[in-house]
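Shipment paperwork, digital attachment
Item: protein structure file
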Amino acid sequence: MIRGEVNRNTEAVIRIEVFGPSSLLRKVDAVVDTGFSDYLSLPIEIVTFLGLPFRETETYALADDTDVDLDVYACTVSWDGRRRRAFAVAADGGVLIGMSLVRGHRLTIDVVDGGPVTIESLQV
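Attachment content:
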């Protein structure tokens, strides 16, 4: 089970570890973004620090209906006690967890300051 909490900005935040190809890692606080359908969004500084390998450039539709081309990189994350391959979109802003990473899990959020955030596997 993954645990986090709701911050003062009403964001559901969890801590994860992101690994590069040489097992270099960065622990990051990540906001769970239910409107983001991909795996993970990372600032370019973290992508560069970890030496993540480039995969492709994709076009993403933002919340304001504009399209933007963003680079996608391969990475590994520590997820629910295991290492899992994922793809990270390099974008300005903080670290975001998208619904592709949450797929197969139950997400529970008590939306109050300091409220618990839990992500539980639905695998039997």
